Fold this sequence. Notes:
Elements: H1 3-7, E1 12-13, H2 15-33, E2 46-47, H3 52-69, E3 73-83, E4 86-95, H4 109-113, E5 120-128, E6 135-143, H5 153-157
Amino acid sequence: MYGEEVRDANVWIPRFIVAVSLSLAIGTAACDRHEHATKPISTSPAQDISSPVEHRIVELAISDISTQLGIPVGLNVRRLNASGTWAFLYGQIVAGDAGKLDYSATPFADAAANGLKTDTYAGLFQASGGDANQRWTRVDSAIGPTALAWSDWAVRYAAPAEIFDTR
């Protein structure tokens, strides 16, 4: 349903528009639900994130990253590809203040200090329920991978291989 529209999106919008939209959608609720507020921050143009489904997937990714790192973060979405009930998101993690990500206060501090972490994120998401009640959940993710951590996800989770294109 969203595969071609998402994968072939060639309309670029300033990322601050996405950040404002997501902040309005989740800002207050995130502060109430989590110790660390998840702040979707973006500083560069990237893929057009315009549908409610795309917004929900980005919200889930930011929440996933913030929970695993234990700090507020933002995300510059580079690719959001979908096919059927599957979606793959690839992006650059930024600090909650839109600065460079610093792993030193996270569970990944040692790995980052040894050059084993980057500022990238990859997440695989799947929808369940009918169109009116569609619920997206994270199936797998990789924070700061130095290699293609998702290279076996298509086989492992029976997800469509075409969604994993990050070009």
